[in-house]
Amino acid sequence: MERVIMQVFRMAANVHPPYPGIVLQRDLQGVSVRQVQERLNELGANPVLVEDGAFGLLTEAAVILFQKANGLPADGVVELVTWNTLFTREAAADPPTVSIPYPGVVLRRGMSGPSIRQVQERLNALGANPQLATDGSFGPLTEAAVIAFQHSRGLNPDGVVGPLTWSALFAVIPAPTPPPQPPNVLIPYPGVVLRRGMSGPSIKQVQERLNTLGANPRLATDGNFGPLTEAAVIAFQRSNGLNSDGVVGPITWNALFSTATPVPPPSTAWTIVLDPGHGGSDPGAVSGGRRESDDNLRLSLAVQRLLQAQTPVQAA
């Protein structure tokens, strides 16, 4: 009853819980994860999720199916775009309609039972070659047929039948094709949220793009997402009015690689001018053979050496 009341209130007021400010992903726990589970259940998650606030395998699978149904990158994490789509009236129901409900357990080699027989029958109907014995025993031929099916649907070819593979296998309608990339993006989004500690060619592209846009200090384009890359991403996000979480999701990526000129990230460097004063024909105060201009120059040079010893400084 409480969920029904909350759902009616949300639809009447056309509001949703504010984004928690962090990317929700597998193994996280908390109130925000429970809100995601409740919303996915409202939209028809199958199997129904336990609303315990723990982001586990079934929650991740339900998120991926929701993202596919709504034309989002199907990475299984709930960032700003997925969150806002999830809590709108227009959110598409998730998951796609299936002819046989998921049995609630991951099926793998060595197991047996009626659900495995249903998988074998379905694989045969879809043209498994060789045809499988529908004996309900998950053997090497069934595993090979599952892997072949997963390859054909762009799924992880691990040979086990979890909620994603089951839904694709028994889908009443074909899974929707990913939408084309926006025409104003220079490089397509890689389909995974990039964050500190990761490495790869997509991160190198981010570093190169940030350097092109004037990142200061300039980044090493080594493909390693370290603290300097994270700081440059945050600076870019702030200068473009984005959520400054330091991770590169689809919104940050599309803003970064937009053909429209984005606002360059603000400089993180300092310019320190040391002016000793006097000099030339103006010696300043003179006493006992010492000139103020000489003392000021020596002091300025000493300060410059001190700064250079602490951090890279380029003398003007």
Structural features:
316 residues, Muramoyl-pentapeptide Carboxypeptidase, domain 1, two-stranded antiparallel ribbon
Describe this protein's structure:
- It is built from eleven helices and two strands.
- The protein has 316 residues and is an all-alpha fold.
- Strand 1 (286-287) and strand 2 (290-291) form a beta hairpin.
Q: Please state the CA-atom Rg, rounded to the nearest Å.
A: 29 Å
**Order of the strands making up the biggest sheet:** 1-2
Low-confidence stretches: 4-15, 173-183
Please estimate the helix content: 40-55%
Total count of strands: 2
Number of spatially distinct domains: 4
Q: Give me the CATH superfamily of the largest domain.
A: PGBD-like superfamily/PGBD
CATH topology value of the largest domain = Muramoyl-pentapeptide Carboxypeptidase, domain 1
Secondary-structure class: mainly alpha
- Give the overall pLDDT as a whole number: 80
Order of helices and strands: HHHHHHHHHHEEH
Reported CATH architecture of the largest domain:
Orthogonal Bundle
CATH class descriptor name of the largest domain:
Mainly Alpha
Percentage beta strand: under 5%
Task: State the helix count.
Answer: 11
Q: What separation lies between the terminal Cα atoms?
A: 71 Å
Largest sheet: 2 strands, antiparallel
- What is the 3D form? elongated
Can I get a quick summary?
The chain has 316 residues and is mainly α. The chain has eleven helices and two strands, in the order ααααααααααββα.
